């Protein structure tokens, strides 16, 4: 298969979808890999390293799209890329369609095959290609929150861990999944008082067993959230419904109940956000303030630590990329149910219910689409 690796052009996105070692593994199976010049520089990988691994370097992004049967990316295509995407071309990347109707309609119109990292799902309901970036974002969230709690950053002027004789900050984490667990570890390690909320009592029991003494668990409901935000210094949104919009657990009216300088980090923003007032921001301009509450809503948080993120992502994605390259997208999805669940849009048809529900679109059975494609 001919595989294309374009440079990410989203604001301050420095990750790359394949490392030179990933290219080397694909070459073992006889695949052709075209890499856009400087695609890996942001993550610390030179063009010469890709060439040594067996890739061909192309000067422009248009050439990569024109040559490739499968495009492997990190983030969803943005508007300048839409016209480059060919009918029947496979794109394997994070899409988060439920947060962007424009992107959804563009991919339907291009009649591409859209295989989304975030909905590749194992039988135990875990999300193997989302987990590594959730781990990175979860660990970053308290770091970013701590920074924006500083007074020059418009925060309350509180040190997350406090000092002897002064209480630490209160951190509220909404969601006890991968992001929430990683966020709790870091916040607790910095010395904060942490409360994790979740609707799953079994998960809360598990967290209660493994977390240190400065982490409490609490059932998530509107009443408990409203009470907790009154004394929270840092709120981290870590809610995920695979492939669908995140629910708004903090609504616009709740901001009035928070103290001035409270910081909210919505890690769920790339799925629409679990905080109603959040909208996607960038590393270049990461925050905005509403009702004296600081909102940090960067949609590609792991892009700020691209070396770590690229290695972690390739570790997870490469086995799936190899399967798709070896068998073709149809063969791979028929062979592997996990990959089949990753199909979101196929040749103009929406085949993932969460995406269809988000934009009131017709959903087509994925098995019918696969059968018709054979």
UniProtKB/TrEMBL annotation:
Positions of the Alanine dehydrogenase/pyridine nucleotide transhydrogenase NAD(H)-binding domain: 149-297
Binding site for substrate: 15, 75
Top-level class of the enzyme under EC nomenclature: oxidoreductase
GO terms (BP aspect): L-alanine catabolic process
SMART domains membership: AlaDh_PNT_C, AlaDh_PNT_N
GO molecular function: alanine dehydrogenase activity; nucleotide binding
GO cellular component, one term: plasma membrane
Binding site for NAD(+): 134, 198, 203, 220, 239-240, 267-270, 298-301
Keywords: NAD, Nucleotide-binding, Oxidoreductase
Residue span, Alanine dehydrogenase/pyridine nucleotide transhydrogenase N-terminal domain: 4-137
InterPro entries reported in the protein's UniProt record: Ala_DH, Ala_DH/PNT_CS2, AlaDH/PNT_CS1, AlaDH/PNT_N, AlaDH/PNT_NAD(H)-bd, NAD(P)-bd_dom_sf
Enzyme Commission (EC) number: 1.4.1.1
Active site: 96 (proton donor/acceptor), 270 (proton donor/acceptor)
Reactions this protein catalyses: L-alanine + NAD(+) + H2O = pyruvate + NH4(+) + NADH + H(+)
PROSITE patterns: ALADH_PNT_1, ALADH_PNT_2
Pfam families xref list: AlaDh_PNT_C, AlaDh_PNT_N
Cited SUPFAM superfamilies: Formate/glycerate dehydrogenase catalytic domain-like, NAD(P)-binding Rossmann-fold domains
Protein family membership: Belongs to the AlaDH/PNT family.
PANTHER family referenced in this protein's UniProt entry, alphabetically: ALANINE DEHYDROGENASE
Protein name: Alanine dehydrogenase
Gene name of the encoded protein: ald
């Amino acid at each position: 298969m001919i595989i294309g690796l374009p440079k990410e052009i989203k604001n301050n996105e420095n990750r790359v979808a394949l490392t030179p070692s990933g290219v080397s593994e694909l070459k073992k199976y006889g695949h052709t890999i075209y890499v856009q010049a400087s695609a890996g520089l942001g993550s610390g990988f030179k063009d010469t390293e890709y060439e040594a691994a067996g890739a061909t370097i192309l000067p422009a992004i248009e050439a990569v799209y024109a040559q490739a049967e499968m495009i492997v990316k990190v983030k969803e295509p943005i508007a300048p890329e839409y016209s480059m995407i060919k009918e029947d071309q496979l794109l394997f990347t994070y899409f988060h369609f439920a947060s962007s109707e424009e992107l959804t309609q563009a991919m339907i119109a291009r009649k591409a095959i859209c295989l989304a990292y975030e909905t590749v799902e194992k039988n135990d309901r875990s999300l193997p290609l989302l987990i590594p970036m959730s781990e990175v974002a979860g660990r970053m969230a308290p770091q970013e929150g701590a920074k924006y709690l500083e007074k020059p950053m418009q925060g309350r002027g509180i040190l997350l861990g406090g000092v002897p004789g002064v209480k630490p900050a209160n951190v509220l984490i909404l969601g006890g999944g991968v992001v929430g667990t990683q966020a709790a570890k870091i916040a607790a390690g910095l010395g904060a008082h942490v409360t994790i909320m979740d609707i799953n009592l079994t998960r809360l029991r598990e967290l209660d067993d493994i977390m240190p003494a400065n982490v409490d668990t609490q059932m998530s409901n509107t009443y408990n959230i409203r009470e907790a935000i009154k004394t929270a210094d840092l709120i981290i949104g870590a809610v995920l419904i695979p492939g669908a919009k995140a629910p708004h657990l903090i609504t616009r009216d709740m901001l009035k109940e928070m103290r001035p300088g409270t910081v909210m980090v919505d890690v769920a923003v790339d799925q629409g956000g679990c905080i109603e007032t959040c909208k996607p921001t960038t590393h270049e301009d990461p925050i905005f303030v509403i009702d004296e509450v600081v909102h940090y809503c960067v949609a590609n948080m792991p892009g700020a630590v691209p070396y770590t993120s690229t290695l972690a992502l390739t570790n997870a994605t490469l086995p799936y990329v190899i399967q798709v390259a070896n068998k073709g997208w149809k063969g791979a999805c028929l062979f592997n149910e996990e990959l089949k669940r990753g199909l979101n849009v196929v040749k103009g048809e929406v085949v993932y219910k969460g995406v269809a529900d988000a934009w009131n679109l017709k959903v087509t059975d994925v098995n019918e689409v696969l059968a018709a494609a054979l």
